[in-house]
Write a structure and sequence with these properties.
Number of strands: 2
Radius of gyration: 23 Å
Distance between the termini: 56 Å
Mean pLDDT: 88
Largest sheet: 2 strands, antiparallel
Number of domains: 2
Strand order of the largest sheet: 1-2
Number of helices: 11
Oligomer: single chain
């Protein structure tokens, strides 16, 4: 087992990569306390990429089923990483991974619907915000490409006037999410849906239903597989 990083290096050595991948593969089983293998490197002497990969690799191994054990829940795997921060793993890498996990940015195995279902409430709220911003900004960007500067500014102005006092602003082709933290999750979803409905309606009035539907399909397609189920769950993909 302890020779497999070196075997991996030998397999990859003839292949050209745009970055130096070999030290990452060679040292991803080193431990932060120096008790790992194959070289027994410690702390900052372990290549940064290897320290990152060590955390990701361990997490993936724990949440994946093996012939000799069942997959562990992602939350349990995260706790195991945190328990071993400073010994097996670089604490700063574990901290960064935990922050990404809590924001719903860590891809998990299974179908997209299953991944969306295991998000914590806080992570789901952040993910919904990401879905809304992604779709709203994609629609603005696509409309700007065919409308010209004057019509683009007109659309932004109408949306800004309608939603600025509700915590959403539109400037330079982007939607800014301001003071909406005081809203309940249900109220936030309603706000985001109202914005998308108004935005879609204004675009439809300018370019027609068929082009709007194309814009919506592109906006949905631009979302990651992790986020698409949320767009469908809350009706962001069909605002009209």
């Amino acid at each position: 087992m302890q020779t497999h990083p070196l075997i991996g290096v030998n397999i990859l050595a003839p292949i050209e990569f745009p970055w130096d991948i070999l030290p990452i593969v060679r040292h991803h089983h080193e431990r932060f306390d120096g008790l790992g293998y194959p070289a027994g490197l410690k702390g900052g002497r372990i290549p940064l990429g290897a320290r990152i990969l060590a955390v990701a690799d361990a997490f993936e191994a724990m949440i994946s089923a093996r012939p000799y054990r069942k997959a562990r829940p992602p939350e349990d795997a995260l706790e195991e990483l945190q328990r071993n921060a400073g010994t097996q793993f670089d604490p700063s890498m574990v901290k960064a991974f935990a922050a990404a996990f809590k924001k719903g940015k860590v891809e998990l195995p299974g179908e997209p619907e299953a991944r969306a279902g295991i998000l914590t409430e806080g992570a789901k709220k952040e993910a919904v915000k990401e879905v809304f911003a992604g779709m709203a900004n994609s629609l603005l960007k696509q409309y700007a490409r065919i409308s010209g500067p004057r019509l683009k500014r007109k659309l932004e102005g109408e949306l800004r006037e309608a939603f600025r006092e509700r915590g959403l602003d539109v400037s330079r082709g982007k939607v800014g999410i301001g003071e909406v933290s005081g809203l309940s999750f249900k109220q936030e979803i309603s706000l985001y849906r109202d914005f998308l409905q108004r935005e879609a309606s204004l675009i439809e009035r300018a370019v027609g239903r068929h082009i709007l539907e194309y814009f919506l399909s592109v906006s949905l397609g631009d979302l990651s597989e992790r986020l698409k189920p949320l767009a469908e769950e809350y009706g962001f993909n069909k605002p009209i």
